[in-house]
Amino acid sequence: MSLKGEIDGVMDGVVNLVELHDRIKGIAPLSALTRIAVAVYDPERDMLRTFIDSTMGECPLSHYVARLGDVPSLVALARAGGPRVVDDLKDYVGDSEHSRKLLDHGYRSSYTLPLMQGDALQGFLFFNAATPGFFTPERLSQLWPYAQIARLIAVLELDKIRLIQAAVKTVRQISYHRDEETGSHLERMSRYGRLIAEGLAEPYRLSDEYVEFLYRFSPLHDVGKVAIPDSILLKPGPLDAPEYALMQAHVDKGRQIIDMMLKEFGMGQVPHIDMLHNIVAYHHECWDGSGYPYGLSGDQIPLEARIAAVADVFDALTSNRPYKKAWSNAEAFAYLRDMRGSKFDPACVEAMLQRAAEVEEIQAHFAETIHD
Ligand code: C2E
Ligand code: SIN
Ligand code: SIN
Ligand code: FE
Ligand code: FE
């Protein structure tokens, strides 16, 4: 069969890595392939983190985060832009820490491809097998078309998110400099949210995709503020009751913008897209039911919105706003603690407090600089 036929055939009915992996396991010489995974690269922090893993349930290496600089062989791979085979991770001394992690999870050999966009590293695609020497030239040539499809799946996933982000950025730019929320607020708040999600990942069995999408969608939580007049949004003092009522409408405006955008772009089918809707629609709900606009409580509020609420308020408190001075971190942490179980989901607060040192690192790194 021609390569194109092969790819069309496989793409037909294959929508994700798990299904692709199943398909590959159906090919006798490749049946012992145990894992396909994608890690995404964050150039800002030089961090690599898992994004999609075909082993899902068992998820042996999920929630993996590493500084790319600490894995020299991957740095070299990104530079060379080409693939790499490791026949036996036992003999492979390149990245001792990293290789040990893989060995601990029963992997003996690996095939790794960097995902590049031009010169920019997007991430890596990993294939692993439990036997040493699995990735022979024969097997690699059989695997090749599937590797291309895996690469396509990875790139498409990342592109979908980029498309949504680009659309929203456009919406935000239309509202130009009027918004008091800078790019760094959004960056910090999304990163705090990701820390919380990472802390909850084990007990709540959250996938790496969940954690990654939470991070990518969180900056859109207040997109509805574009519909709020300057006289309210930029008011230097406290809002009176009617003004606050108008301000609260940013949630519903945001929900409408997101839902319209998803419909326009035909993105309703994107996995985890409901998280975007949930973050925008429910980030001002409170654990005890006292929030707005719906007055939901506890588990009725989607987890991603409970997480975003803690992250958003912490950053709002520790930032200058036209209507208030920044609080100290100690005051803001104390506020989160006080509001455990009333305003906030206690588990989300706990997870954030556990990572206080990293919160402060993010804060220092993404200090107020430019106005978006
Ligand atoms: P924001 O500034 O991003 O604040 C997000 C949330 O952080 C607020 O939601 C609130 O829960 C918390 N927060 C922020 N600053 C303070 C504070 O000084 N004390 C306390 N206890 N909590 C604080 P909320 O109240 O629903 O407000 C939503 C948005 O409405 C705010 O987003 C802000 O844009 C605007 N807003 C709220 N209050 C005022 C105000 O007094 N004056 C002006 N000009 N805008 C306000
Ligand atoms: C993983 O994909 O689970 C780990 C990523 C890596 O090994 O770098
Ligand atoms: C490596 O082979 O160094 C990375 C492979 C993986 O993380 O799965
Ligand atoms: Fe908001
Ligand atoms: Fe905010």
Q: How do you describe this structure in short?
A:
The protein is α+β, with helices and mostly antiparallel strands. Helix content is 51%, strand content 11%. The protein has a six-stranded antiparallel sheet with strand order 3-2-1-6-5-4, with helices on both faces.
Structure explained in plain terms:
The chain is α+β, with helices and mostly antiparallel strands. The chain contains 14 helices and six strands. Helices cover about 50% and strands about 10% of the residues. One fe (iii) ion binds next to loops.
What is the fold's blueprint, element by element?
Elements: H1 3-11, H2 17-25, E1 33-42, E2 47-53, E3 65-67, H3 72-80, E4 84-86, H4 96-104, E5 109-117, E6 120-129, H5 137-174, H6 183-204, H7 208-217, H8 230-233, H9 241-264, H10 273-282, H11 303-317, H12 329-338, H13 346-354, H14 356-365
Helix pairs in contact: 1-5, 6-7, 6-11, 6-13, 6-14, 9-10, 10-11
The protein binds ligand C2E, succinic acid (SIN) (2 copies) and fe (iii) ion (FE) (2 copies).
Portion in beta strands: 5-15%
Rg, please?
Answer: 23 Å
Mean pLDDT: 86
Number of helical segments with 4 or more residues: 14
What would CATH call the class of the largest domain?
Answer: Mainly Alpha
Coarse shape: elongated
CATH fourth-tier homologous superfamily of the largest domain: Hypothetical protein af1432
The number of strands is 6
Supply the key terms.
372 residues, alpha+beta, Beta-Lactamase, Hypothetical protein af1432, 2 domains, six-stranded antiparallel β-sheet, 14 helices, elongated, binds ligand C2E, binds succinic acid, binds fe (iii) ion
